[in-house]
C-alpha cells in the first residue's frame, strides 16, 4: 500500500524532487508497465496544482492513442503533427504552451484548458508516446516544469517496457 498524501514543498524544485523520488518508490517494485503508467498518471494528477488533466498518449500504428490519465474524458486518437501532442511527437521536443488558444491547430479535448505542456517519450531513439498535462490557467508551465517533467519521463523509461504498450 502506498501513502496517498499530497506532496507538499516550499518551492517548485523541492516539490519536483519529492515527486520524482516518490514516483520511483511507486513504480520500481512493479513490473507491469500498464499498472506503472496508470499510477504515474494518477501521481501527477493528484499532486500537481492548477491542472485539469495529466496523462499519456501512446504510439500505436503511427498515431497517438489515449493511455492512462487523470481528468475528464479525453480525445482518443491524435495524428502525429496535429495539436500540441502531435507536434511534440513529430518534433520529439517538449512543448510549453502558455496559451493554448494561440496555438494553431490546438485540439480542445477540454474547453477549460488554457495552457499545456507535452513531453515526448523517446527511448533508444524510438518515439513511444507523449506525457500531456493541461491546466485551466494561462502560463501554468515554465522551464522548471519542463526540466523536471522531462526527468519524470526519463525515470519512466527506466521502469516501463514501452514495447508492451505500443505498436510503433
TrEMBL record:
Any one annotated GO CC term: cytosol
GO molecular function: L-methionine-(R)-S-oxide reductase activity
Database matches in Pfam families: GAF_2
Gene3D superfamilies xrefs: 3.30.450.40
Annotated GAF domain residues: 46-153
Record InterPro entries: GAF, GAF-like_dom_sf, Phosphatase_reg/MetRdx
Family: Belongs to the free Met sulfoxide reductase family.
Protein name: GAF domain-containing protein
Lineage: Bacteria, Bacillati, Bacillota, Clostridia, Eubacteriales
